[in-house]
Amino acid sequence: MTTRLDAVFAALADPTRRRILSMLLEDDMAVTDVAEPFEMSLAAISKHLGILANSGLISQEKRGRVKWCKLEPDAMKDASVWMQGFGQFEPVNLDAFEAFLETELRPDVDET
């Protein structure tokens, strides 16, 4: 469990990967659609997706010629259980987590 937990926390440590997870909360997405809002190469996005897949936070499958990504929220359960062991954290509420991600990852809008 320690290795998997390390992989989950390492994957969550990067803001790009957290934003990808937030995007996948809505629905499964093709890799090219995941890459669209980022100003980085498809190869760089693929590396991020590989880290997320290796941690178990997402799964990937090929449908025809397109590779699709799907959120696997159960992968966060071990992290939630581990944090609860400290008695300072409430159980992870995925709806609240989604709202938090949307707030944190919302693009800044210039206020004029």
3D architecture notes:
- The protein has 112 residues and is of the alpha+beta class.
- Helices cover 54% and strands 12% of the residues.
- It has a three-stranded antiparallel sheet.
- α1 (2-12) packs antiparallel against α4 (42-55) and α2 packs across α6.
- The longest helix is centred in the middle third of the chain and has 14 residues, at 42-55.
- The chain is globular and about 45 Å long.
Name the structural class. Answer: alpha+beta
Spatial shape = globular
Q: Give helix % range.
A: 40-55%
- Describe the strand arrangement of the main beta sheet, using strand numbers: 1-3-2
Query: What's the total helix number?
Result: 6
What are the defining features of this structure?
3 strands; 6 helices; 112 residues; three-stranded antiparallel sheet; alpha+beta
